[in-house]
């Protein structure tokens, strides 16, 4: 599928997906489980939008919690705690587009979208990006399920009208399943605003079935299940025990241990793209404040393995409303033969299955060679979209879309060429 499909030609995934991929669509049961009804507009109600700072957004946490219960697609990465952490430690201005349903003296939050300002993207353009940094894995706006189109339209109007704010939006990792993307397409068509899909990806997702629980080992073969049980017995014999951390001062100490273990393993090696958080000192305080804020809000948990006083492995997962998100995992490679990553994944999966309020689990890992991709057959469709918030579009917005698409395609070609050369030299060395 061509990455450069205009957004106004992008339809629901059921219409564009190849026949062999239809099994990866999220079933109806994965839709948001709402505890409050979505709002509708009536003659006495109107929508008002505003652009606020991260600090202002943090004052509306009760309103945010209420919105999550009514959201079309809950997204923990839009949480006020993450906006605050990014604003304090990211070096970029964070703004949040809020939309309120106003009726008389009552205001109800019906939309929230956090964005970071990048004043020199590709050197010449000032843009807003939902990817506040590389630890934020979803940019879907959180909108009331009953007012999707109306809220999206108001958000774009607020961004376009705000003095000094970029009008070009890079919506990264936007959820392409369900109703959101078709609604955005319709809104942009009515506004005659220009938009372009510049990236697509898929990542493993686990969802509840309509009439039954998922099996304990989803997607695993009999041999894999046997190996998992064997390694579990070895862990117990070695005195390695699971520990669940959800609150208190123990979180801070455990998180520092996680950072150390992650940096000590393969993620800490720059030849593996340097994924460890500690390799970027600017990310360390952001990550610590983010996790602390989400833990206090009841939106983050740490599952760990420990041998006495020695930490062995960590899996940090997040939640928002009916959705869970896998954030980060790391383990001491001296214990690799015990399969600690698989053990923790099973623990987290069991926690997910035991909570009836959770409907889906986003792995947040786009690699098809990852553990989750191997055993979770469903895939979540994501897109990166460049949007010109101005009605009717603009020359600068169109020019940026061309530049961004050219840059991404060029980077993809270079990466493919590099991988080909590396594979060639590995083949030569193995033949010698």
Structure in words:
This is GNAT family N-acetyltransferase. Residues 222-350 form the BioF2-like acetyltransferase domain. Pfam families: Acetyltransf_6. The chain is of the alpha+beta class. The protein folds into two domains: 7-204 and 381-421; 222-358, Gcn5-related N-acetyltransferase (GNAT) (Aminopeptidase). Helix content is 36%, strand content 25%. The protein is built from twelve helices and 13 strands. Strands 1, 2, 3, 4, 5, 6, 7, 8, 9, 10, 11, 12 and 13 form a 13-stranded mixed β-sheet that branches. Strand 11 (323-331), helix 10 and strand 12 (360-362) form a beta-alpha-beta unit. The model is unreliable at 1-6 and 8-35 (pLDDT under 50).
List the helices and strands and how they pair.
Layout: H1 13-16, E1 45-53, H2 54-58, H3 61-70, H4 80-89, E2 94-103, E3 106-121, E4 125-129, E5 142-143, H5 148-161, E6 168-175, H6 180-191, E7 195-207, H7 222-237, E8 240-245, H8 250-264, H9 283-296, E9 300-307, E10 310-320, E11 323-331, H10 340-354, E12 360-362, H11 371-375, E13 379-388, H12 395-431
Parallel strand pairs: 4-6, 11-12
Antiparallel strand pairs: 1-2, 2-3, 3-4, 3-5, 6-13, 7-12, 7-13, 8-9, 9-10, 10-11
